[in-house]
Amino acid sequence: xxxxxxxxxxxxxxxxxxxxxxxxxxxxxxxxxxxxxxxxxxxxxxxxxxxxxxxxxxxxxxxxxxxxxxxxxxxxxxxxxxxxxxxxxxxxxxxxxxxxxxxxxxxxxxxxxxxxxxxxxxxxxxxxxxxxxxxxxxxxxxxxxxxxxxxxxxxxxxxxxxxxxxxxxxxxxxxxxxxxxxxxxxxxxxxxxxxxxxxxxxxxxxxxxxxxxxxxxxxxxxxxxxxxxxxxxxxxxxxxxxxxxxxxxxxxxxxxxxxxxxxxxxxxxxxxxxxxxxxxxxxxxxxxxxxxxxxxxxxxxxxxxxxxxxxxxxxxxxxxxxxxxxxxxxxxxxxxxxxxxxxxxxxxxxxxxxxxxxxxxxxxxxxxxxxxxxxxxxxxxxxxxxx
Length: 387
Description:
The chain has nine helices and 16 strands. By secondary structure, it is of the alpha/beta class. It has a single domain (5-386), classed as Alpha/Beta hydrolase fold, catalytic domain (Rossmann fold), CATH 3.40.50.1820. It has helices spanning 77-83, 116-124, 126-129, 160-167, 176-194, 206-215, 256-262, 337-346, 374-386, and strands at 13-21, 24-28, 31-35, 38-45, 54-56, 88-92, 111-112, 172-173, 197-202, 220-226, 236-239, 242-245, 291-293, 306-308, 323-327, 352-355. The model has no long low-confidence stretch (mean pLDDT 92).
């Protein structure tokens, strides 16, 4: 493995501190508690070359450790941004990690945690499971050579680097709508505290970029959306290399009854979020976005999805913000993130949509910030920001 400059030499800090934002006091069974707060860790380099800081939002089942170091002991993206002269804020989402758990289980606070099999299949060893067409190209997860010459267990239980990564998985709220509500609330408080910032989101935190830009566009200078949660309206299901939408009332999506039923029960009723965005013309109280299927994809590795019915409502608060959507070659997101891009363009939101393999980065999976070429990918992101 080539040694990258980020992994060598000292990176001097002018400040390293932490604080909490977004919490509120609540009365519960005769006690006063705090709920909804977000833990934020602050890093300021001595050589602060960039005026706008970067906020790093981790994905589902993860914490801010995703950006500090890799499972094989190299430095994480935090250090790449510090080396480039950015101040960096790393968060643990509310009800996650060092932000703590305080919601009652009867009020949206049920917790979920990933198991070994899902982490292997989706994050660290997808080529072995082959749940989607691109999975076979995954090569970038770090692993150890077997001393006895037997088959490598890279990305699987029992490999030291997998075990380190799996140990970092944490309990997370099961209700995605509550997750979005709490992170929008705490994210607004964070941006009010630190001022305008660049937001980097990953996976489950992808909607936070859209929600924060919608709520306080003056404080969002750019959005770096690494495989944002999607696709629009409905989740997809992976099975033995096939990708399709979850069966609901009627598997035949050309059938009118399917739409009548699913118009009211889609996973992301606001297209790219579960909680409301500001559309123009506005949605009236109780009104739903209307959607239709895309034309069937001619590319067998890509699923076709759903977009707004025309004329499409616009997302005025997201327009004019520089946005990068980035997709890894072997990730399950490679099947469908193009639909998220199409939804944004239909809503008048210009952005750059990038497949990493088109820029020479091959074999990456969903957890690209932890993989063998993590610094090279960070250099690409930073280069995009600076140009």
